[in-house]
Predict the 3D structure of the following.
Amino acid sequence: MDRRAVAVADMERRLGHVFADRKLLDRALTHASVGQGARKTPDNERLEFLGDRVLALVIAGELMVRDEEADAGALSKRLHVLVSGRACAEAARALCLGAALRLPGGETRRGAREQDTILADACEAVIGALYLELGLEGAAAIVLRLWAPMLSEPLDQVVANPKSELQEWAAAKGLPPPVYEVLDRSGPDHRPQFTIEARIEGVAPAAAVGGSRQAAEKAAALALLLREGGGS
């Protein structure tokens, strides 16, 4: 058994499910950069699309059950944190998913198996594959087990709303509000990557990358907050 096969078996053990449809699992674990060309290898982007929606539905339903008194605003904030790329990457690491991915050699050497974006996308793809193989009830049971530690954590307002928190921090310091500048936009139209810099006059800027301008702005705001101690 080769190294990746061992990693896949370990991931399934941690997941608590051995896939009957091995092609479905292989697709969920195949990054879009594999086999580019006329005969492109089927990748996990469509499964990621599906898994993103399944995850949101499962977590939203669980939050409704857990807190019957919370209003829609509070539920939305909690949901945003729990279905974020950061949360999905955390779940992926719990599964040791990075070692099981199919990636080009160059991507592996660049450390892609540990990148939050790649891990989060793969985690959502696996959830999509679970939904196709087990249905919503079966997929939900596994998702809720994986997300149990995060569901038990209190809502961190800094992580949930970093831009608002940064603006409040700046105001408390007597500083002007933060501004956000796009430093770079790369990738295809269907999968862009934005590099955003958060700036406050008199404070060293902080930059971050995200799959949308909004996500990158939030990540940059969080990076600046954490560096300056505004998140403590």
